[in-house]
Amino acid sequence: MQNLSRVAPDLRVANSHTHSVSPSGFPFVSRGNLETLQANLGYRCNQTCSHCHVDAGPKRTEMMDKTTVNWLLRCIETHNIQALDLTGGAPEMNDNFRDLVVAARKLGVRVIDRCNLSILLQPDQKDLAEFLAREQVDVVASLPCYQKENVDQQRGKGVFDLSIAGLRKLNALGYGQPGSKLSLNLVYNPAGATLPPSQESLEVVYKKQLGNDYDIEFNQLFVMVNMPIRRFESRMAAKGQLIEYKNLLKNSFSPENLDGLMCRSLVSVDWRGYVYDCDFNQMLNMPLKNADNERLHISELITMDLCGNAIHVDGHCFGCTAGQGSSCQGALVA
Ligand code: SF4
Ligand code: SF4
């Protein structure tokens, strides 16, 4: 396999995640083994949440095509990928979603669906929950609060009730139930310019509230930091809180989070097949480059070994290292 160190000289300065600091002040970090392929299947979504770092919504047209989906599957095979993490938009709205899930599961890969819950109630997705259960797909679902007002304020009017209905559907199929192999994890992110509370203690509160009020069960709560990019960045800027929030992230830097950064073991692939260190770098248009200094496409990744290469870091990365840390699997240091 080719190594990218020849083609990204500006990033080559880092061969250890602790030795030097980038111009943004964030330490350089390098890649470990590639374990997870995170694919953004497109920006269309049935919701338009205020914190969305993708700017997703019903009018977006960018969707991953079948050819690119097939490259994902080739990449899973050649890199012995352990997990396929599907995101969007609402990934289920991509016409290739179900074929991809079935093919990936046949390859023995763990598949994660980042589900907004309300999609499970859409008229054309009424069998979606059953499909996910049949294929034993792990569901990671956003629910930024256990209170209706807060969820509706952040994710749109009526979204809380739809989310509860979606969770009930999943529970009825065995998701989140004791002894079940069907995993259901929820995601919390703060409504405003603050760091999330302790993941461990908030999970206890969520389980109590959702259990008592709605009879809902789930496995784990993932607590995530809001990234100051796209829609959330604009919102913070409009409120005059952006600089303060960025300073909060920077001042809350915890070096013990560096080892667990998700970008050390994951690549993110956009709807066109271009490769990034993570979903945030994708949104900031910070792609990996090939030998011709052009955007690296997943069709080229098949024959490359990224291990040891420097990760493209910048000021937004402080969102991943603030406090208990943040990743697509929640806090880094619980
Ligand atoms: S946060 Fe998720 S559910 Fe909300 S608009 Fe963005 S992609 Fe859709
Ligand atoms: S924003 Fe992306 S590249 Fe930066 S630390 Fe977080 S996961 Fe890594």
Q: CATH class, anyone?
A: Alpha Beta
- Give the tally of β-strands: 10
- Helicity, as a percent range: 25-40%
Going across the biggest sheet, name each strand in turn: 7-6-5-4-3-2-8-9
The major beta sheet can be summarized as: 8 strands, mixed
How would you explain this protein's 3D organization?
This protein is of the alpha/beta class. It has one domain (33-231, 261-306): TIM Barrel (Alpha-Beta Barrel). Helix content is 30%, strand content 12%. It has eleven helices and ten strands. The protein has helices spanning 66-78, 97-106, 128-134, 148-155, 159-172, 199-214, 230-238, 242-251, 279-283, 298-301, 318-321; strands spanning 2-3, 36-40, 83-87, 110-115, 138-142, 184-188, 221-223, 266-269, 275-276, 304-305. The strands form two sheets. It has an eight-stranded mixed beta sheet. A two-stranded parallel sheet has the order 1-10. Helix 1 (66-78) links the parallel strand 2 (36-40) and strand 3. The two termini are 36 Å apart. 47% of the residues are buried. One iron/sulfur cluster binds at residues 261-263, 277-278, 280-281, 311, 313, 316-317, 320.
